[in-house]
Amino acid sequence: MLTYNELIKNIGYKKVPKKYELAYDNFIEYVKKIDLSYFLNKAYLDALRTAINLNDDAYNYYVSHLDSFNKNKDLVITCYFLKYLLFYFEEPSLNDIFQTPKCALYQNDVFESYVLASIVLERIDILKARGMNDEILKPRLGLIKRILEHHINRDFGNFRWASFDFYINLFNIDYLSFMIPYIFDANLHIFRSNDNEMIILAGSGEKIRKDGQIDGVNGISDYAFTTTYKETNKSYIGYYITKDGIITNNKIKLDKNKWTEYIKEGDYILEMHVGNHYKYEDNIIAFKKAVEFAKKYFPEYQFKAIYGYSWLFSPQIPKLIDNENSNILRMFKSGYIVPCASGDHLAFDFIYGDPNMTVDKMPTNTSLLKSIKDFYLQGNRINCGMYYLLIEDLYKL
Fold first, then answer.
1. What is the CATH number of domain 268-394?
2. Cβ contacts of residue 307 below 8 Å, gap of 6+?
């Protein structure tokens, strides 16, 4: 059996989080139950072709590699290991390997496609057993088809995100999509009072700038303090985050008789992803539909909040938009905002389709785009934010 380091090297990862070393011992037991004489075979590709309507060119391309691929036993074991890391070691929403594989043993696009494709039929069966019909699955299977047809002789740009697509844990609901289930693992503590007030405290170890944002975001350091968090028998003590996303240098104490830690690490939430359509009323309707969808098809989970991560939840939004009727501003104000360390490269990629946009090239053909350029001309920067809306508060909007 290959060692952990040999497997990581074969995949082409340079360095991965320490937690994945823990997967190796479990993988050794897992792999004992598997036929290692091959990774995929023609029967599997035939069934996949039928399930997603894969075109002839893509089907023939992937079939043509089967014999040479399966002859390399180190490659087969490496594929099973990567599959285990992505889909079995933990809930896939917790995947925090952001590297794209660079397989040392075989043509990388085939390696990537085989590993991702290997989970699809199993996931279809699982989701159909949950009661999902073809109408629900069709958009996701159509996406998998397009990805496999597109990536012939072409590596995946964002392999981690593609792994979610192939695992089929993103579901289209109206104009939004939702990752279900999604496990909360942020360095935050979210509380609910007896009077239904919500407060978020920062976890320990976050270095904060004087403006209340993460120190170092966008390459800007203006260090002010480092957060700490403590729980005693009677209280929770930590640094208060304002509802509009400012981490304050204000350590507060919450009485356990009045406050409950409402969302804890490991709890389930619904992660939303926005598209081109972004209207406040439509988003709220989609949120409610997502909650009902989750209750129907994942009844064993207790989902506690809607969560989003985007430049649309940047703590700088109120400085960019002063129109109270703005859909962006209304959405921003509907939840609780928390700043994060992703800077304007991510924002620019979404806004302009160019993560390296420069101020001199910024368009100004809408009031929002003009406001963003003016904001930058004044020496300011945008960073992304997280959005939390407790499900019980959703129905008050």
1. 3.40.630.120
2. 182, 184, 269, 270, 271, 272, 386, 387, 388, 389
